[in-house]
């Protein structure tokens, strides 16, 4: 006899409809609040909108004006400089902290909390704390001078050439703990037999980390790199809290440029064009990472 096909019970169908109905508000929110606003920003960036949106289509004129604006070029330069310092420093410092904690040190839980605590703070709070610490008349410079070193100078926050280094210092202090947590999770996944074999063969510890451990925790490094890069692109709070974009416009970044032209200079067309470019930058970072992650997951599934 031919096997009888079982039809799913109506109760299961009703549950599926209930789940889909419950997800409907979220789907509408995504379509309207995210996709809708993105499309609106792209449309406005192609018009001559100033204080209020208009339908006067000007093509790519706003983008051409954007790339001829010296302030936008400076903001891109500052973002690149900040990003290079921030990402590299966080990866190196976070990895070293993870290696230190991975040695089963006493008070490991307390140390993890201490290193990760700054990440729980907002960038505004971090910026205000570091603004006070780097203030030449109140903070570290003044404290060292009062200790008997009158020639000591640490005035990065008021120097046009060094202000981005001061902002990067504060951002690294806040975010290195997150990288440590990601790296530590990767290190705890390394098989203990690898270390035993390395000790038997007499391989130096630094060589094991460089040639074996780092490739094994590559997914953790990639995740940390993407998160840090996204933080670089949207950096705003710490700049406003520490310097307000100053001295002058020496610490201008793209996000502050957008907010300034959107609210203070009443040029939403130019601000929208800059926003679209930042969105494209984010997509350029996320899409390859997501593609590589999906390929890795599929390969692991096929392997099993």
Automatic annotation (TrEMBL):
Membrane-spanning ranges: 21-42, 79-101, 113-133, 163-187, 208-233, 268-292
ABC transmembrane type-1 domain boundaries: 76-289
Keyword Transmembrane set for record: yes
A Pfam match: BPD_transp_1
Membrane topology: Multi-pass membrane protein
InterPro entries assigned: ABC_transporter_permease, MetI-like, MetI-like_sf
Keywords, in A-Z order: Cell membrane, Membrane, Transmembrane, Transmembrane helix, Transport
Subcellular localization(s) per the UniProt record: Cell membrane
Family statement drawn from the similarity comment of this UniProt entry: Belongs to the binding-protein-dependent transport system permease family.
PANTHER family given in the database record: ABC TRANSPORTER PERMEASE PROTEIN
Protein name: Glucose/mannose transport system permease protein
Species: Rhodoferax ferrireducens
Origin organism lineage: Bacteria, Pseudomonadati, Pseudomonadota, Betaproteobacteria, Burkholderiales
């Amino acid at each position: 006899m031919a096997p009888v096909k079982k039809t799913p019970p109506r109760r299961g169908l009703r549950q599926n409809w209930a789940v889909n109905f419950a997800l409907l508000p979220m789907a509408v929110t995504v379509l309207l609040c995210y996709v809708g606003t993105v499309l609106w920003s792209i449309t406005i960036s192609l018009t001559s909108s100033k204080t209020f949106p208009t339908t006067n289509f000007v093509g790519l004129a706003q983008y051409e004006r954007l790339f001829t604006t010296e302030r936008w070029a400076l903001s891109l330069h500052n973002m690149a400089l900040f990003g290079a310092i921030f990402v590299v420093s966080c990866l190196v410092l976070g990895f070293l902290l993870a290696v230190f904690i991975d040695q089963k040190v006493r008070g490991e839980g307390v140390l993890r909390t201490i290193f990760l605590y700054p990440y729980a703070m907002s960038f505004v709070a971090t910026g205000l704390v570091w603004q006070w610490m780097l203030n030449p008349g109140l903070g570290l410079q003044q404290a060292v001078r009062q200790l008997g070193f009158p020639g000591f100078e640490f005035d990065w926050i008021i120097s046009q050439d060094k202000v981005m280094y001061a902002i990067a210092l504060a951002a690294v202090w806040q975010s290195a703990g997150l990288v440590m947590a990601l790296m530590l999770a990767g290190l705890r996944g390394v098989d203990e037999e690898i270390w035993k074999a390395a000790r038997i063969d007499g391989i130096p510890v630094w060589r094991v980390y460089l040639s074996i451990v780092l490739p094994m925790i590559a997914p953790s490094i990639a995740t940390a790199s993407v998160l840090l890069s996204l933080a670089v692109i949207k950096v705003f709070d710490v700049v406003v809290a520490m310097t307000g974009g100053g001295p002058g416009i020496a610490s201008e970044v793209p996000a502050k440029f957008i907010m300034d032209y959107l609210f203070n200079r009443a040029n939403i067309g130019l601000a929208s064009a800059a926003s679209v470019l930042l969105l494209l930058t984010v997509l350029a970072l996320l899409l390859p990472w997501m593609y590589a992650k999906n390929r890795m997951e599929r390969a692991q599934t096929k392997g099993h």
